[in-house]
Structures are given as structure tokens and as C-alpha cells.
């Protein structure tokens, strides 16, 4: 582990401390909008091309995704100006990159949309749209035959998707926030962590420009009709009217959300195909995400899974807790370093650096490492104990530790309350600064009085705390007004707890999440759960406490199923009142597994 020096880049973790840049070569650019490009089956895509004002042939960077290309233009960037994530006008899908930065430094910026999106024609399969467009770009008189790709989120997912197809002219990719690796352009597994559904896609889809035809709902094919009827009878869906509304329209409105609702499971064949496809990627790839992405999971999970599974020149960066500015312009100096190396043959030094960079909250500084999880990780257990304690001491055999009573909370459904009930467990104030960086697991023994629930667990940094706990008045409780900062969360639907032992690791449980693996809980029976918390990196300062909350509900931040920001989604939770009991004793050693990084 190495700290990356630059004390001034400590605001948000959205820029690496690199000094790399080249003076702009070109002033202004040539703009060609709404160009029609023919695909192999005759369908035409609509693209925009922004070229430096020169007759020289140059490499091109393609941004391609399901988001309206007209919103990616430099006109929008000029009018809106970069908006931080706390701005009311922050707009998530403005993600294709900074045209002025790229063209002024000698790259052609191409922005396009797949068939059926915006001005692109519809019909047929979009499977080879990216491939065909890349090869068309390479043959244009303004291109030197080399193509890279740019853009985050949906634009990042397209990069890995087409890299598996190996278009000859695609030489390198930079898929930041790339979506899931175990599927096509994302996956159930990585987005709906632990099988718990959330509404991120619903909230985002309200603003899409996909072609949709509505009318009177008709019959579905028999298998899908049966799935639809099952979903229509799901009482958890019925308490969310805006979700149930999509179901009633039988796929005519927000078809991707409809497909999720009638089949909220992973498929084994999807995983097997992804594992085979990893070997098809044969070009350099720079991926990453930010700690901000733990809430909707797909980007943070996807980046780690892509990095772990591909065998090419590769790098990964984990940015800070605040979303990147929109229109997207962050990390552009790093993008320039990457493509100057691979497309222009300039020795930028980027491949001589450690492959992993990560922002450490709490310390507010960049660190680097040789792999992820970090090879020097010391996997450390903190045990849940009575009186809300997290303790390093394991339970003693043949002692009173075998007779400790469980803790309990009762959660009413969202139709009856906005109050989220929880159990809270905290460590003692830490004696020294402690760095935690990597994936985290809660191994939990618990019972419920129903056949299912959603486990939602929250890791926070609490403190500093200079208090002591004694029997004296005023010293019996941990102060309630301590500063507190949430770091990450984990989710698991109790009925989806079955593990795949071949794919699981102590620090990364692999839940099957298939329809066949769903197993209702026996009410009143103590059951073991391995709940993965999304990876994070935080320096718990001396005097701070490590805090774990165990809950089963989250709620919208607005009314009518709305939220203040689409990238902080809520989850579809149980329609019943559920009693939860958390066991912590010799036979049921519930514990948190933390990735502690030794300090040099």
C-alpha cells in the first residue's frame, strides 16, 4: 500500500493526483450532427462526430449508450456547466465526456445511440451495433484506424460488451462505472445485491428516450403469462403502486423493469456464459467506480468483477464518496494518459504505476496497491455481543457465552410506518488509526417469525468519542450526538441465502440467487446468513468507533414513491410485520469480517 502525494487534491476524491497533461494542439472543432450510419442489417444509427480542425488522421474515442446523444453535446455542457452531485440540476446520464478537452488534444469524439434510442432507427437486434460502428469509424478519412472508447455508466457497460466481440479496430477501453460483469450490459447479480430489488432503474428510466408503443395489453407467451400472474399476486409488489402499475401493463411500459419484476432472479446459464466471455477480452482496460456507487451497486460490483476476471493489461480506480460532476469531465487527465499511451505511443508512465488506486475516506487521501483485494489485507473478525457491542474477543467455549440471549427488533411494513427499526453494534473507541479497505462480510445467525425478510446492514464511522461508560449518571450510555458518517451497506433476502461453495470466498460469499435456489425460512429457526457489504476504504481515526446497524427496511426520501436523487434508490421490502432476533453466542458466533490494512 502506497499513499499518493498531493495534499491539495483532498476535496472529494474525483481527480487523481496526476500532473499529466499536454498543451492543447487544436483550437475549435468541426461538428457533424445526426450522421446516419448503416449497420449490417440495414438499420441506420444516428451519431455525432466532433473533429479537431485539421486534415490529419487521428484516433477516435467513441461514446455509445442508451442515453440521448443530444444531451451529450458541448452545447449542453456550455449551457449547464459542470454540476456537483449536490446541485439540483445534476443529471446522471450526461456521461459521454468533455468534447472540448478531447478534441483540443488530438482525439476525435464520436457520440452515438443504439437502434431504438433517440434518432437511431429501430428494429432488429442491436447485438453488433457497437462493433459495426467502430469499424465504420476506423474506415473514415479523418480516422487513423485506431478506436478507443469513453464514457461512464451505460457508456462504460457498452465498452466491455463490445470488447468481448473483438472488433479489430478497437485498441483499448476506459470503462469507468461499467455496470455488472456477469451478464450482457449489466446483471441481476451485481445490481440486485443479495436478491433484494431496488428502484434505481425505475427512477432512471422515467427520463429515457427509448421508443415505446402502448395500447391495450395483450396475452403474453404462456411461460411469461404464468410468471406475470405470479408477480401480480406478489403482496410485496402490491404495496408499491407505482411498481404494480408497471406490472399491469404487461411489458408495454418500461419493459426492462417489467422483465425484472416477473423474474427477479439470476440464471446459472448467464453466469456460465459470462465466465467464458471473460477470456474473450484481449485489449487493455482501465475500469473503476466510486464509493458513491454502493447504494445501487452495479457500478462498484461490476468494476471489481471485471478487474478480477480479465487477463489483459488492466487498471482500476476507486474514487470518493461524492458522485462525479455532470456533464462528465472527471479523470480526463487520466483518460488522456491512458489513450496517449495506447493510441499515440507516448510514454506517459501510466503502466509503470501500481494497478490499483483508491480514495480513503476519513483520511481524505489517495492510496495505491498491487491487487484487489489488497494482498496485504489482514482479515479481522469483530464479534456481535450483548449490549450492542462489537468485540474482537471470540466466544469462549463451555462458558456463559453459550447462554447469551438474542437481541431483537420488530419492523412494521412501509404501509404502516416510515420508522426504520434497527439493532446497533459498536466497537470501543479505537486506540489507533485503523485503515479498512476492501470487501466486508457479516456472518449472521438470526431467526424471524415469518418465512422471509430483507436483511439490510449498514457500516458507519462514529466519533470521535472521548466519553467513558461507568455506572455514574450521565456516563451510562454512548452519547447520542456523536458525529456519524455512513460508509457502505449490504443486502440479502433471507430466502436467497443459499451459497455456491465453488464460487464463494470467505471475503465474498456467492449466493446463487436463482429461482431454484429460493428457500423460505422456517419461522423461529436460527438460520445462518453470509451478508456481503459493498467494498469501501476508510480510515477510522483513533477515538472513533466502528458501527454496524442491522435493519430490514428503507424508505423513499420523497412521497408517492419518489426520491430526491435517482442514484439513492430504496428497496422493495416485506409487506408484513416481522420480528427479527439476532443471536450471538458460542454456538452462533455472529461476526463482522473486516479488511484491515497494516500501516507502514
Write a short abstract of this structure.
Helix content is 18%, strand content 26%. With 600 residues, it is an alpha+beta fold. The model has no long low-confidence stretch (mean pLDDT 94).
Description:
It is a single chain. The protein is α+β, with helices and mostly antiparallel strands and 600 residues long. Helix content is 18%, strand content 26%. It is built from 13 helices and 22 strands. The chain has helices at 74-80, 99-104, 129-138, 154-163, 188-191, 200-205, 222-232, 235-238, 241-248, 255-262, 268-277, 298-309, 332-343; strands spanning 2-4, 29-38, 44-52, 58-64, 108-112, 143-149, 170-172, 285-290, 314-319, 356-360, 365-369, 378-385, 389-391, 407-411, 423-426, 434-448, 454-462, 484-493, 527-540, 545-551, 578-583, 591-597. Strands 12, 13, 14, 16, 19, 21 and 22 form a seven-stranded antiparallel sheet that branches. The chain has a six-stranded mixed sheet with strand order 2-3-5-4-6-7. A five-stranded mixed sheet has the order 1-11-10-9-8, covered by helices on one side. The chain is globular, with a radius of gyration of 25 Å. The chain starts with a strand and ends with a strand. The model has no long low-confidence stretch (mean pLDDT 94).
Main features:
alpha+beta, 600 residues, seven-stranded antiparallel sheet, 13 helices, six-stranded mixed sheet, 18% helix
